[in-house]
Amino acid sequence: MPEPARAAPLAPDELLALDRQHVWHPYGPMPGTAEPLPVESASGVRLRLAEPAYGQRELVDGMSSWWSAIHGYNHPVLNAAATEQLGRMSHVMFGGLTHEPAVRLAKLLADLAPGGLEHVFLADSGSVSVEVAVKMCLQYWRSAGRPEKRRMLTWRGGYHGDTWHPMSVCDPDGGMHQLWSGALPRQVFAEPPPPGFEAEPDAGYLASLRALFERHAGELAAAIVEPVVQGAGGMRFHSPGYVRALRELCDEYGVLLVLDEIATGFGRTGALFAAEHAGVTPDVLCLGKALTGGYLTLAATLCTPRVAQGIARGEVPVLAHGPTFMGNPLATAVAYASVELLCAQDWAGAVRRIERGLRNGLAPAAGLPGVREVRTLGAIGVVQLDHEVDVAAATRAAVRAGVWLRPFRDMIYTMPPYVTGEADVARITAAMRAAAEVA
Ligand SMILES: Cc1ncc(COP(=O)(O)O)c(C=O)c1O
Predict the structure, then answer these.
(1) DSSP structure class, residue 3
(2) Catalytic residue status for 295
(3) What NCBIfam families has UniProt attached to this entry (predicted)?
């Protein structure tokens, strides 16, 4: 067979012109107004640009591609897992068929997750895994003859994704989905948990949570929160004591608990799952992002036998959800390799080393004009300003310093890959300080 002709590479100018004309970017207008940086390749913790930007051809990645690429790029173990699986089959439908990569991954996740989360629904993105979690909880109560229990409780300041039900439990005020507040299902919102990972839980706040359960338990299917770190809603840290309190309130008032660990799962906060800081097992757990080491899109919704059996007892005993690419063999094979790779190394030591580097490197930023607070937890470092970030100016300053950052709202932050060495962590913190000075 004749070889198909290879398309000639696009010159950077041509690529950008076509991008502007045809390609919708995240949270952007069409046609685009900002100029994205074309990336040619990525390896280790470095992104290689198609041409230099502000004097830099290679950037240290401070973002892990939205917190997913924990092992860095072009990793030989993940490459081998993908290549090997590609030689067998890249995809096969999951209805009526099954395969080893999905089964192995589900078993591994059930073994590693907080005890009792035995059942695994494989979804195609974090947002979809949250949709599935909500559907599981509502259906659990419907099957129990309590269809009126169909609202969700959450605390303000959260972020759970961009599809419909996840949007309804995102921060309703400052968040990016405020536009839809009149159209989304109306959920029950507590105030944001008081800040500070180390802080003692506040008795007044706990009483206000209890009052919400007291008032709404009869209509609540579940509480859903990000444990310990609220990510895209504002990069805030709170005491694990609030997660423990939620578990107790859920048990007392007959409400399910969903923990969204899409951002915090797989070591980011210093524990393999943030629920471990609180010693809590949720009824439903959402995982995504770092699950495949950032290689492919995949998420998982885990639940306990109580939830699964509750659904099975209903008039409709099945969970009516089945994405076309459910359990994708390539994604599950790479996810299995990624989670095994994580567990085979001293990831906790790596996260502690990064935490030390972030704390030392960001401490001087606390004295800069316009900086409200500097905080770190695990491999997360945040410089919060007292004003909205000038994203273009901050990005330019970071790129000049050889680092890729993507600030938002009043935040300049980093969540680097766990393989980031000390010198590169120092480079990231220097770039964050430089960005804070001009933002
Ligand atoms: C806590 C949390 N939940 C859900 C999501 C949505 O995941 P995805 O972007 O894969 O749909 C995100 C993404 O940032 C997240 O941080």
Answers:
(1) P
(2) no
(3) bioA (TIGR00508), PRK05964.1 (NF004624)
